[in-house]
Structures are given as structure tokens and as C-alpha cells.
Specification:
Elements: E1 8-13, E2 16-21, H1 32-46, E3 53-58, E4 63-65, H2 70-74, H3 78-96, E5 102-106, E6 109-111, H4 113-119, E7 123-127, E8 131-133, H5 147-155, H6 157-166, E9 169-171, H7 172-177, E10 183-185, H8 187-202, H9 206-219, H10 224-238, H11 242-254
Parallel strand pairs: 2-3, 3-5, 4-6, 5-7, 6-8, 7-10
Antiparallel strand pairs: 1-2, 8-9
Organism: Negativicoccus succinicivorans DORA_17_25
Protein name: Enoyl-CoA hydratase/isomerase
Family: Belongs to the enoyl-CoA hydratase/isomerase family.
């Protein structure tokens, strides 16, 4: 299943895909090779109909992803830098657009591109040692993989601007306080906590869960009137599914 990848791997655990970025000696930093593998892997998993939920995490106990590879970026010019940013945006957008719900299990540093990768997930759980930050301005660049938009939507414009302008790191409890993560747990419990949530999601109707995700994401780009009209369209689609028929008939029989 993962033989063609060197820096990432995944397993299908009873319909839950666990994707691991596996460069622990480099704190799972995102070099070009790793990003290309993620691009291919995200496509593979998104199109796998046996996968109901995705969990994204990093190898080791120190980092989820400690950012992009500074050594590679140091050699870039305006055009290659722009292309790198666009590729990073394509990969994060690909993750966000996966039909399955995606949970980030942030097990350490989530900095720069790592924080941006977590922001492309539907929600984030963090270990107690996790740290988040967008340090790009320290290196003479701005965020390039979507943080100016996704971080702003996650925590609000004022807090996002403070984090983006100062390059400050925040710990897991502060991330919880500002709404960047949903839960903070001991590192030893992180993956099991994410798996438990994934299993609760699995108990629900697959089409309905996916319709809910599309309604939420697509609605963010619309005004409220058009967003709730889109919701009505997805609502109607669910009534054409076998799941809806069986589940509602079963409810009636229980009563």
C-alpha cells in the first residue's frame, strides 16, 4: 500500500486512513519530495471508497510538521518561490477538498507549512507538547500555503494577524483557548482520541457526512442566503439515498 512512498505512509484501519508524514530526523519538514508524495497520496486516499475518515499526523514525538525545508527555499527566486507557494496551496486545497472528514492529530511542532497543513484539515486535536506558529516573516517571506486565509477563518482576523505579524509560537492550551484546536490530550492518547472520534463519525451515514462537509466548506465562499440554499440542495440529495430510507424506517420501527 505504501511501497511507492519514502517520506509518507498510510494504513487503512477498518475504514479510517491514518496518514503519517515520516521524516522524524528532519522534524517531518516539507521538502519538495515529501510534498509531491503527499500530493499523490492525498489523491489516492480521497478516491478510496473504503475510506470513511482520514487522520493526518507526523512520525515521532517532537513534530507534526516543523515547516517547509528552509535549505530548499533559500535557493528560490521570485518565480520559483511563487511556484512553490502555488504547489503548496494545491496540496493543502487537495486535503481540504477530500470528500472524507480529515482530523489533524498534531503531535508536536506545527509550524509554517505544518500549521497550514493542519489548517486544511476539518479540525485539529493536539498533544500537550504541541506548538503552533507561522514564523515565515522571520525568514523574510510571508505565509505561502494558505495561512493568511485559513488561519483567519479559524481564529478570526485580529488573532490571525497577531500570529502572522509577530511569528510567535503558541502552545497547545493557548491554541485551544483561541479555537485553533478542539482538544488537547497527553501525547500517548492523541492517536486513540482521534480514532475514537473517527469511529463516531463512521457510525453515521457516509453520504450525509460528506454532504455536510461540502455544505460547510462551499458555504464559506457564499453569502448566507445562497449558502443555506446550497444546504437545501444537499439536504434533498440525502433523501435519495438508501441510508436515509433504512435509517428513518428503522427509527419508525423502534417507536
Amino acid at each position: 500500500m505504501t511501497a511507492k512512498y519514502e517520506n509518507v505512509h498510510w494504513e487503512n484501519r477498518d475504514g479510517i486512513a491514518i496518514i503519517t508524514i515520516d521524516r522524524p530526523k528532519a522534524l517531518n519538514a516539507l521538502n519538495m519530495a515529501t510534498m509531491k508524495e503527499l500530493h499523490a497520496l492525498f489523491a489516492e486516499v480521497a478516491h478510496d471508497e473504503t475510506v470513511d475518515v482520514i487522520i493526518l499526523t507526523g512520525a515521532g514525538e517532537k513534530a507534526f510538521v516543523a515547516g517547509a525545508d528552509i535549505k530548499e527555499m533559500a535557493a528560490m527566486d521570485t518565480l520559483s518561490g511563487r511556484d512553490w507557494g502555488r504547489f503548496g496551496q494545491a496540496v493543502t486545497q487537495q486535503l481540504e477538498d477530500a470528500p472524507q472528514p480529515v482530523i489533524a492529530a498534531v503531535n508536536g511542532y506545527a509550524l509554517g507549512g505544518g500549521c497550514e497543513l493542519s489548517l486544511a484539515c476539518d479540525f485539529r486535536y493536539a498533544s500537550e507538547n504541541a506548538q503552533f506558529g507561522q514564523p515565515e516573516v522571520k525568514w523574510g517571506i510571508c505565509a505561502g500555503f494558505g495561512a493568511s486565509q485559513r488561519l483567519t477563518r479559524a481564529v478570526g482576523p485580529a488573532m490571525a494577524k497577531e500570529l502572522l505579524y509577530t511569528a510567535d509560537f503558541i502552545d497547545a492550551q493557548e491554541a485551544l483557548r483561541i479555537g485553533l484546536v478542539n482538544r488537547v490530550v497527553p501525547q500517548k492518547d492523541l492517536l486513540e482520541t482521534a480514532l475514537a472520534t473517527a469511529k463516531r463519525i463512521q457510525k453515521n451515514a457516509k453520504v450525509a457526512v460528506r454532504a455536510t462537509k461540502r455544505s460547510v466548506l462551499a458555504g464559506q465562499d457564499l453569502d448566507q442566503r445562497n449558502a443555506i440554499e446550497l444546504e437545501a440542495q444537499y439536504f434533498g440529495i440525502c433523501f435519495a439515498t438508501e441510508d436515509q430510507t433504512k435509517r428513518m424506517q428503522s427509527f419508525g420501527k423502534k417507536k
